[in-house]
């Protein structure tokens, strides 16, 4: 299974259909309108600058619209009903936009011609786009039924449960590449020729074999903290990860899905719509560019005041753990005295003597967070998302709340539901209390919720209630 090739099939089909339909529509526009406005031949109409520009731009407009609809995010496993509804909604929006922006500039002899052009365009764009998409999807499904296309799964685990899962996965259309022994103390139960190695061999195995998904089937003797450690070690491979649940599963906060009656937690997925993900990502980039540009005078003033208030650098950089468990360097305006960073990791307390007077002002109005728009632009963070933590504190948090790892399935944010509803945490226990708000955000992610959090954040900034 090649996701990139399948995605290209959809892209090429949508582009060709959009191009063809616009050519046919221009033929209709010429017959009904243009030839009565002075265009003596189809060539003169099609060769005019507005028509040529539209013929180039309109197909790309459709691709951009389809991208924001989230249609290309998952080229495999599409639902026929979702595909029908999604195409209907997207085409409806696109046709209305093009009609009002382009076609209404035409001046037909009769108003009824507008109806003819609109519904002709709508039906052609919808029927042909959907028909081609269904053909590509059905072709992929036939390949899967004939077992020509099967997701390749590497199973982390080699005990009796892994043997059972192997049979069930194969019946459900998966190809089990092999097994990795998750713990050398547990005797493997799978066939020796199917056992590819241990967790230490995983980097080489991922480079050697074609693996589409990772499935964790831990033995009953594996402790919860070791399961969490295994999960963290898998994130950087950027593959979908599922884990088999149990009665005392530490991942109870995650949504459980079933594959052929086997309960799995899909740990790299959440309920945020594909369209919402794409819109949020584009909005993050736009917001970061605007903030870094428009607020540059404020950045310069704060930098001057930070430098003047105490010796040391203007910016404070610190490693945090972000999306898919990857470390990144967060950037903030320095609010503490320079020698404070040389101490062991310590959470900031109320009236913390390490904080400078100007730093206390910055923290009160959350202005120290402004440089993080650079992290957003780089793709390390989002404007809204769970607060990123240091590896040192994550290790303490997961001992009491192992479901914390779920937050690494989304990009951390400059502001979060936990920060606006709870604020800064001075101890690990308070961090765990704040975690409940971030888990709530994770389970209910939406653009509307992001906007709500931004409104609360602006209120905090304006009222100076950031501490």
Could you give a quick summary of the protein structure above?
Helices cover about 50% and strands about 10% of the residues.
Folded structure, characterized:
The longest helix has 34 residues, at 112-145. It contains 16 helices and eleven strands. 51% of the residues lie in helices and 11% in strands. Helix 1 (3-32) runs antiparallel to helix 5 (112-145) and helix 4 (80-101) packs antiparallel against helix 5. It has a seven-stranded mixed sheet, with helices on one face. It has 467 residues and is an alpha/beta fold.
Element layout with pairings:
Layout: H1 3-32, H2 42-46, H3 49-68, H4 80-101, H5 112-145, E1 152-156, H6 160-171, E2 175-181, E3 195-198, H7 202-208, E4 213-216, H8 224-234, E5 241-244, E6 256-259, E7 262-266, H9 274-294, H10 296-309, E8 315-321, E9 327-333, H11 357-364, H12 372-378, E10 382-384, H13 391-400, E11 413-415, H14 417-421, H15 428-443, H16 447-463
Parallel strand pairs: 1-2, 1-4, 2-3, 4-5, 10-11
Antiparallel strand pairs: 5-7, 6-7, 8-9
Helix pairs in contact: 1-3, 1-5, 4-5, 9-12, 13-15
Strand tally is 11
Strands of the largest sheet, in order across it? Answer: 3-2-1-4-5-7-6
Q: What percentage of amino acids are in beta strands?
A: 5-15%
| Radius of gyration from the alpha-carbon trace, in angstroms | 27 Å
Largest sheet: 7 strands, mixed
Class derived from helix and strand content:
alpha/beta
What are the defining features of this structure?
single chain, alpha/beta, seven-stranded mixed sheet, 467 residues, two-stranded antiparallel ribbon
């Amino acid at each position: 299974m090649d996701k990139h090739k399948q995605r290209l099939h959809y892209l090429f089909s949508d582009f060709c259909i959009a191009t063809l339909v616009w050519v046919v529509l221009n033929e209709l526009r010429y017959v009904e309108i243009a030839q009565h406005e002075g265009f003596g031949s189809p060539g003169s109409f099609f060769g005019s600058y507005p028509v040529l520009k539209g013929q180039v731009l309109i197909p790309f407009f459709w691709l951009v619209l389809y991208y924001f609809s989230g249609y290309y995010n998952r080229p495999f496993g599409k639902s026929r009903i979702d595909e029908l509804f999604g195409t209907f909604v997207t085409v409806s929006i696109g046709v209305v936009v093009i009609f009002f922006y382009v076609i209404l500039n035409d001046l037909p002899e009769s108003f009824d011609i507008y109806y003819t052009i609109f519904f002709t365009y709508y039906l052609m764009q919808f029927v042909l786009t959907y028909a081609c998409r269904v053909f590509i999807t059905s072709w992929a499904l036939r390949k899967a039924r004939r077992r020509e296309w099967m997701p390749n799964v590497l199973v982390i685990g080699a005990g009796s449960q892994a043997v059972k899962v192997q049979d069930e996965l194969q019946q459900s259309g998966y190809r089990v590449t092999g097994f990795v022994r998750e713990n050398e103390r547990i005797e493997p139960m799978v066939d020796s020729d199917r056992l590819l190695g241990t967790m230490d061999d995983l980097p080489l195995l991922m480079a050697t074999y074609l693996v589409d998904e990772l499935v964790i089937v831990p033995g009953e003797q594996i402790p919860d903290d070791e399961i969490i450690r295994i999960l963290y070690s898998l994130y950087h491979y950027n593959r979908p990860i599922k884990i088999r649940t149990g009665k005392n599963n530490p991942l109870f906060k995650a949504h459980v899905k079933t594959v052929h009656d086997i309960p799995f937690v899909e740990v790299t997925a959440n309920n945020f719509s594909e369209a919402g993900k794409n819109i949020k990502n584009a909005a993050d980039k736009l917001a970061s560019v605007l903030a870094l540009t428009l607020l540059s005078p404020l950045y310069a003033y704060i930098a001057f005041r930070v430098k003047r208030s105490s010796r040391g650098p203007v910016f404070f950089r610190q490693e945090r753990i972000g999306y898919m468990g990857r470390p990144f360097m967060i950037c903030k305006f320095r609010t503490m005295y320079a020698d404070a960073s040389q101490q062991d990791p310590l959470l900031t307390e109320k009236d913390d003597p390490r904080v400078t007077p100007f730093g206390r002002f910055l923290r009160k109005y959350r202005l120290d967070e402004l440089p993080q728009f650079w992290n957003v632009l780089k793709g390390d963070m989002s404007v809204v998302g769970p607060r990123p933590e240091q590896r040192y504190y994550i290790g303490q948090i997961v001992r009491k709340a192992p479901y914390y790892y779920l937050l690494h399935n989304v990009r951390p944010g400059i502001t979060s539901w936990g920060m606006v509803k709870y604020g800064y945490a001075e101890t690990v226990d308070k961090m765990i209390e704040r975690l409940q708000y971030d888990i709530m955000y994770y389970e209910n992610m939406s653009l509307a919720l992001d906007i709500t959090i931004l409104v609360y954040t602006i209120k905090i900034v304006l009222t100076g209630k950031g501490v």
